[in-house]
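Before going further, learn to read the protein records used in this course. Taken together, the tokens spell out the fold as the letters spell out the chain. A record is reproduced here so that you can trace the correspondence yourselves:

***
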Amino acid sequence: MDFNGIQPDLVTLNILLNCFCQLGQLNFAFSVLAIILKLGYQPDTITMTTLMKGMCVSGHIKKALDFHDDVISKGFQLDQISYGILIDGLCKNGETTAALQLLRKIELLRVKPNEVMYNTVIHSLCKDKLLSDAFLLYSEMIVKKISPDVVTYTNLIFGFCVVGQFKEAVGLLNEMLLKNLSPNVFTFNTLIGALSKEGETRKVRNVLAVMIKQGVKPDVVTYTSLIDGYFLVNEVNMAKYVFNTFAQRGVIPEVNSYSVMINGLCKNKMVDEAVNLFKEMYLKNISPHIVTYNSLIDGLCKSGRISDVWDLLDEMHDRGQPPNVITYNSILDALFKNHQVDKAIELLAKIKDQGIQIDLYTYTVFVDGLCKNGRIKDALEIYQDLLIKGYQFNVTMYTVMIDGLCKEGLFDEALSLKSKMEDNGCNPNCITYTTLIHALSKNGMNEKAVKLHREMIARGLSYE
């Protein structure tokens, strides 16, 4: 345009500025603003809104707020779209309180809040489990005659599900229906997914019936959630039935559907069926993700089929899907249970060489494996090393070590460790007490066992 002597107008420059903002190139975006001013144009609301959006997308929230204050101080009038973008940026960056404050402030700037702004803040509050604040905003919408829409209700249903208040979530769904608001597939899936994770399959079927009655077609997410729920309550045949009738329901299974099936089958010791499903994924050109691999590897490990696991590990590397700490935790546990201690030690060294962040759970599995295989000295070395490195142990790690010491007949050391864990602010649980009481009773130390029993009862704990 320059070479042809065509001067770009404000619309053209706003488009260019928007392109740079979308690419996260804020320096170039502000250069375009400079060109706008140099050519004598007056930047408009679109210009300023686009720049604020660019800052939000790039994570520069404070800059966006400062820019907003600067723009307002110079007399620019921003609109609902401007504030919707700014509030959305704040919420996406975890600045819910600041978003709420801005929502309160904009009316003073002669901009009327709309349902989009309220929905954005309500969703963020629900994610933060601040349901009372979210519901307060919902009530405020009604007072201000801003009609809550499907998005508002879906957000609130999600929030109540997050905190386990399913009765209230179902109540909101019924309220939507009474107001002739049509819940969409996402609304239903939110509720069905949450109820399924709680094993509430009867309630899920009721919601599914309402969904179909409302003319909303269940999708692959709906049925995958239902399968997950059936597995959770050990209704394996129902889970298999739903999966096997996907085609009849006009639904195409995807990677998550297969992952849920493989995980459920493995947990029910139906590993051969899980392997067959895994092979079926390749025939249908569905690439397994890390969860799929981890579920199958865990199932194979628990079935003692470690030789198959090594092949899967090679395949993961070949497919550019490297194993993570969860993968290795399953394998380490299996190696110890099969008394392959040296291989477990080699694998831990390999994990460290790969730069994988080892968590406390991994070390707990490792220490437990060493203890159960009579390698208490090695377990104590790792335990002491972790102490030196500043690890904060949980009740599981302490209990594992106490169990190991008891198995070696080191009862005084085990009791001493129990005292240390209490000194460190970690209270023994029923498993800790049961481990000690059983070991002491078995070795004729009845007086100490009875004392621990009374202490356990006094703490309100019971035997598992």
